């Protein structure tokens, strides 16, 4: 197998520039889609929903979009720069290598970004929340494998699973699974 040299500083500078552009575009897209409406529910009922931890479909969909999109955009930009051993938020203890860096990380990021984009393109819906819940449930198995492999994965996966279970719960609830 042919060894590939590590990315140069110029590559990281380009990646950082691309990330900044993606963040600006994503922020503009999110800001242009944001609508602040008065709740359709009576204020006293809305207070009750808030007290018991209730979220509206719109709030849940937005949370899911930000969660999926945040990971998606950064993975598409540069998986190693953000999540590699020396990255901003290291999820991996070993280098990703050219296969994971070039295809798998970016492809996974593209899929997450696509899920997030649907919130802004078609608006929040029960169907979208179901899709977010199903994908959240399916990714739990690889997350557990990461916790079990301490040689290649950092301990950040433990709190990530806790946060992920929260996302799974609210999207499954908004999706009508229970």
Describe this protein with a few key phrases.
single chain; transmembrane helix; membrane; transmembrane; 178 residues
Detail the topology: elements first, then pairings.
Elements: H1 9-33, H2 43-51, H3 57-77, H4 79-83, H5 97-121, H6 126-148, H7 157-174
Helix pairs in contact: 3-5, 3-6, 3-7, 6-7
Radius of gyration: 18 Å
Q: Structural class per helix/strand content?
A: mainly alpha
Proportion in helices: over 70%
Count of separate DSSP helical elements: 7
Main sheet makeup: none
- Please provide the ordered H/E string of secondary-structure elements: HHHHHHH
Task: Report the span from N to C terminus.
Answer: 50 Å
Overall pLDDT confidence: 85
Shape by Cα distribution: globular
- Strand content bin: under 5%
> What is the strand tally?
0
Low-confidence stretches: none
Number of domains: 1
Oligomer: single chain
Keywords: Membrane, Transmembrane, Transmembrane helix
Describe the structure in your own words.
With 178 residues, the chain is an all-alpha fold. It has one domain (9-32, 55-174). 71% of the residues lie in helices and 0% in strands. It has helices at residues 9-33, 43-51, 57-77, 79-83, 97-121, 126-148, 157-174. Helix 3 (57-77) runs antiparallel to helix 5, helix 3 (57-77) packs across helix 7 and helix 6 runs antiparallel to helix 7 (157-174). It is globular and about 60 Å long. The N and C termini lie far apart (50 Å). The model has no long low-confidence stretch (mean pLDDT 85). The chain crosses the membrane at residues 12-34, 55-78, 98-121, 133-155. Keywords: Membrane, Transmembrane, Transmembrane helix.
